[in-house]
């Protein structure tokens, strides 16, 4: 019987780029079913007065170098420092929420991050979002209209509420039962916990 693990992600999060490219393969190898759960990390960070990189140039420079090193270690492409912050309106995140409901979140998240990290396009801008959606074989106008519906806004709010209730404060976060593992560097530990408990 496979174990289950929730993957809480926000598409405007930098370190989530690594997790989006690693989580699926690691979970599959361990016979763990991964549930992709987009949420608004920005909402929780504002509530918690937790803006780790805003106005902190030294920490921001470290983050980019750390991401580059970790990407190299895991064989993930990293062209150069992409624009940041991105997706100010949360549109890409709402599309991810719709995609999660319909089972195509992994392919959309990967396409969205490729556009951001490798082509340096803000994933929340319609032109870049449309390119990512076409890359998954979907019609952008229809998907974007649905992502702007009250139903998807509410679904994203509900997932953000669920993240808050679990004590989540950042993205990516992995949850096994009530155990919370924050950060791409805790992915292996989260999978191991999931398979052994």
Can you tell me about this structure?
This protein is of the alpha+beta class and 197 residues long. The chain has one domain: Glutaredoxin, CATH 3.40.30. Helices cover 56% and strands 11% of the residues. The protein has 9 helices and 4 strands; from the N terminus they run βαβαααααααββα. The chain has a 4-stranded mixed beta sheet with strand order 2-1-3-4, sandwiched between helices. The longest helix has 18 residues. The chain is globular and about 45 Å long. The two termini are 13 Å apart. The model has no long low-confidence stretch (mean pLDDT 96).
Task: List the main descriptive attributes of the protein structure presented here.
197 residues; alpha+beta; Glutaredoxin; 4 strands; 11% strand
